[in-house]
Amino acid sequence: MITLAILNSCTDESDDGKVGTNVFHEKIPITFQLLEKYFIWRQSDDLIYQAWLQSASHRYKDLRSRARAKWEKKNQLDNRIGKNVWLSWIEEWKTPECMAKTEIKRNNRKGGADVNEYPATHTWGSSSARKTAALLADDYTRDPFSPELFLYTHTKNHDMKTFIDEKSAKIYEKIKALRDERSRPVDGSSTPQPVDENQLYYDAVAADEGYGEFVSKDV
């Protein structure tokens, strides 16, 4: 319901001409009221609402961040975003205040050092792996497997093929080698063996670090 409310705020205009962020702040309370009709909880309504509002705010910021990155790096527009909303976002991103904040965040992600002296180890910025996985879940319509999350966060502009460093490429090649080995059909069968994708990632990373094999918590 949070995602639906966010997308509606990015496509609709309110009666008084408000767009984007303003509409988002109007729709979230309305969506929460709908939620109250179908669910009950032991905590106070105010406590649940604050958690709901915080989660919605994070999801909205993530949507804007991903849309901006796609627009700036690939010159692509998110077709879920309305034209007027796009224009309002672009106008905001070009303000001196917003550009200054962006530069500060970029420097923070580099540890305050020049990029040539402090190479990146992943490409998901300051977002946690859990948050990035939640974003990818919208695209996959399921929780992403560990190799998929690794590929997304360790390739340039998330293109899923250009690795940011040799180590990342080596780990992913190990993942593919393990997948080929473990999915190989048994004698007398042409059907590939089922493979635990998450375990492939654990074992590939462990092999790279010289730790042998890990046992997945799901096993």
Description:
The protein has 219 residues and is mainly α. It contains nine helices and no strands. The chain has helices spanning 2-11, 21-38, 45-74, 83-93, 96-109, 129-140, 146-153, 166-182, 197-209. Helix 1 runs antiparallel to helix 2, helix 2 packs across helix 3 (45-74) and helix 8 (166-182) packs across helix 9. The longest helix has 30 residues, at 45-74.
The coarse overall form would be: globular
Q: Please identify the structural class as seen in this structure.
A: mainly alpha
The chain-level mean pLDDT equals 75
Number of strands: 0
Following the backbone from N to C, one meets helices and strands in this order, namely HHHHHHHHH
N- to C-terminal distance: 32 Å
Count of runs of 4 or more consecutive helical residues? 9
The largest β sheet comes out as: none
Helix content: 55-70%
Low-confidence stretches: 211-219
Strand content: under 5%
**CA radius of gyration:** 21 Å
SSE diagram, text form:
Elements: H1 2-11, H2 21-38, H3 45-74, H4 83-93, H5 96-109, H6 129-140, H7 146-153, H8 166-182, H9 197-209
Task: Summarize this structure briefly.
Pfam families: Transposase_24. It comes from Heracleum sosnowskyi. Helices cover 61% and strands 0% of the residues.
Task: List its traits.
219 residues; mainly alpha; 9 helices; globular; disordered C terminus; Transposase; Probable_transposase_24
